Amino acid sequence: MTGQTVKIAALCECGHMAVQQVNQFINRGELWWDAEFSCDSCGSYRCEHAGPGTAPDDEWRQALLAANGAARLRLVRPVPSLVQAMKVFRDVSGVSLPQARGLVEQLSSDGVVGTLAEMEFLKTRLQLRGIPVDVDR
Ligand SMILES: [Zn+2]
């Protein structure tokens, strides 16, 4: 399983420092993320989120990138048409047509950058459509 984790210190209701852990991974072919909170002092534990989709950019995704570094998705060799790649970006990321076009341009130049789980997920989807891509870490 391709996945990444980040732990962030958080204050518990009991007044002690606790840990929030966020995991991003691929689950049954979908990009998933979950968040859990656990406190060693009072033993409280709760799952704060579990489901498909991209982790919220401001808190978790940036923390995942900071802790694990970014992965880069690149075209392995030139292909005659990137229409299929554009479809994948539109389906998977829900972006507009101009945004999808921008992502395709990045794919064939410097690469598309994101968390490892996101890039591995896109890689699988793009390869299914016959687009030769790979992920640099
Ligand atoms: Zn506590």
How many distinct helices? 4
Succession of helices and strands: EEEEHEHHEHE
Q: Report the C-alpha radius of gyration, rounded.
A: 17 Å
Query: How much helical structure, as a percent, in the residues?
Result: 25-40%
Q: What does this molecule look like?
A:
The protein is an alpha+beta fold and 137 residues long. The protein folds into 2 domains: 66 residues; 66 residues, Ribosomal Protein L30, Chain: A (2-Layer Sandwich), CATH 3.30.1390. It is 35% helix and 36% strand. The strands form 2 sheets. Strands 1-2-3-4 form a 4-stranded antiparallel beta sheet. A 3-stranded antiparallel beta sheet has the order 6-5-7. Helix 2 packs across helix 3. The radius of gyration is 17 Å and the shape is elongated. The model has no long low-confidence stretch (mean pLDDT 93). The site of zinc ion has 8 residues, from loops.
Please give a quick description of this structure.
The protein contains four helices and seven strands, in the order ββββαβααβαβ.
Task: Name its key features.
single chain; 137 residues; alpha+beta; Ribosomal Protein L30, Chain: A; four-stranded antiparallel sheet; three-stranded antiparallel sheet; 4 helices; elongated; binds zinc ion
Please specify the SSE layout and strand pairing.
Elements: E1 3-11, E2 17-27, E3 30-38, E4 45-52, H1 57-68, E5 71-75, H2 83-93, H3 97-108, E6 112-114, H4 116-128, E7 133-136
Antiparallel strand pairs: 1-2, 2-3, 3-4, 5-6, 5-7
Helix pairs in contact: 2-3
